[in-house]
Amino acid sequence: MVLNMPNTMTAPQHPSTAPINTPDQLPINRWYGGPYSFEPPAQQPLANSMYAAGTNDQISYCPQVINGAAEMNQLAQRVDQVERHQFQEGLNARFNQVNTARQLRNLQTEQAKDIKILELRITVFSLQAKLTEKENDERTRLINIEPRTQEEKLESAMKNRSLNRIASGAMSPDLTPVQVCIRAAQMEKLAKLLRSRVHIRGAEYILEAEDAEAWAAKLRKDADATKSEAKSPVTRGRKLAPHQMLAAQHVQVSKAPDTQIKVEVLKTSVPETDNVTSIGQGWQPAYIKALPCLPAQELQVVPSYEGMHHFDRSFLLTQLGGTSWSPSFYHVPEPERSLLPDRGYFILEAVHEPLGPVTPGAHGSLLTPILRLPEVGNPTTPKPESMQNAPLFVKQDDGYVYYGMYTFLRADRLDIERCDAVVPSHLKDFWAEQLTSTHRPKWVTEALQKHLLPQPTYSGPLPDHADEDQVNAGLSRHMTAMEIWQRDTHLKTAFLRPENILAAFSAPDTGAEMSGIRFWNMALRCDGWDEGFYNMMVREEGIWKKNGSRDGEGERARKEEMMTMLRPRSKRPKKW
């Protein structure tokens, strides 16, 4: 029986059968053995055929009976594949487990090795220090120096350029006893440092140390004599300006404490910018000398040299926090809990800063051969505001003295003649050892690499002016040049010695094997002496000592060391 299908209907299709549009894609007619033809339906035995052609040139397929054995075979193959996949996953999981256990054992072994290496390194450093001390004592014993009188030592000290810079203006009558004592302490520190390095330059350092000790003794003697001549408590601890001397003559001295001394008000007006004293320093940039000193009224609250509190270094680093970001400057990140969030502070060693402030409230400058300053808009560096109105502490005797709030103004590179005239030889020796130390910061090593050999710059085509292949080739060449530069400069910096840095201090800017290294002068302006900050720090140090004198710097160093050992070796920073 033949069904007459309407022209609007389409013959059903099997899901796996696609519409056939060309003769070579037509199915084979099993009755005639050739491709199907689109002739009128009357010419084809539709009743006996398993195909039916519609009026829209489409062919429908009548499904056949599925073979049960073939289906079972396919299911068995599928089950076998699933089992094989599960077995492979089990093997991979077991392999990962064994590999993880092996890596854990290797990491534990490496940590044990690192701890042992660290202990051995500490032992070696202590032995080297003892050996250096023994060598220094032996060298000192073997050097024969003719005995000299005190006058001969003082005469020799007057001719020493380094000592003259430290004691600049020490013989001036305008200096206060505090300033004279500070210069004497600086010379004593310098003498101690020179005697510990006799093995480097021999008799030259011994003679210079004797000169410094003789001059320091004379300065202390003169300071004691000046203080003994003081007739009024008002003059205690600082030199008076002319208007202050006039006020002291009208003082009514009583037997009551100093706080009850009554001073008559002067009829003459005192200018607010009047200076307490003319601070006799060594060389300073012209713009530093042109800065007005703090008003006399602000410096009246500064304690005397005997009454000035000396802070412990561990307390400063624990209370203020932060980390060393550049020489003598510590930056406190904003998230850190501190009295100075997102700010900084200066900690100076008087022996290593010959141009630093000589008294609290005085302007000064720092010397450094490696300059590192904050950058505007760079999130990896501190903000420039962190070096404004920052506390400054200077090492004196057994502690650090608060000198006031200071602001960094500018940095200038000194030429070779100015470096020879301003920078003493012991400071060059100090920086030569610092720059070649194995414990130097990573940024110092990177600065030395760029100084030894300029870093390659990309000179290839840009994406907007060349095709992708040319840009990729240019980037590949640049990466190869960077790898070569990194390898060569890393090797050179690893083998740097103090004598190489000392030679670079005297080398010209161009034409030498290692281009010259110059010192930078960082100008610091004193904005004031904050009495409230000083009293708060004194009070907090008393609480800190009662609580056990916690060493914040040591805790941070131990934490960083532990984190370094716990990092995977592939991500561990290089140890210089």
UniProtKB/TrEMBL annotation:
Pfam families: DUF6697. Transmembrane segments: none annotated. Coiled coil: none annotated. Residues 547-562 have a biased composition (Basic and acidic residues). Residues 1-21, 547-576 are annotated as: Disordered. This is DUF6697 domain-containing protein. InterPro entries: DUF6697. Residues 311-539 form the DUF6697 domain. The lineage of its organism: Eukaryota, Fungi, Dikarya, Ascomycota, Pezizomycotina.
